[in-house]
Amino acid sequence: MEDQGTRGVTAPTLRNVAVRDEEKSKFMLRHCPQDEVSLNCAPMSDSYQRHDSRAVNQLRNISFQNNIAPHATGSTLIEWGDTRVICGVSIEDSVPRWMQSQGVEGGWITAEYSMLPYSTLDRKRRDINKGKLDGRSTEIQRLIGRSLRSALDLKKIGSRTIWIDCDVLQADGGTRTASITGSYVALGLAVNKLIAEGKLLESPFLDPVAAVSVGVVKGTALLDLCYVEDVAAEVDMNLVMTTAGKYIEIQGTGEEATFSAEQLDDMLKLGSEGVEKLGVLQHEAIAKG
Question: Are 181 and 285 in contact (CB under 8 A)?
Answer without folding.
Answer: no
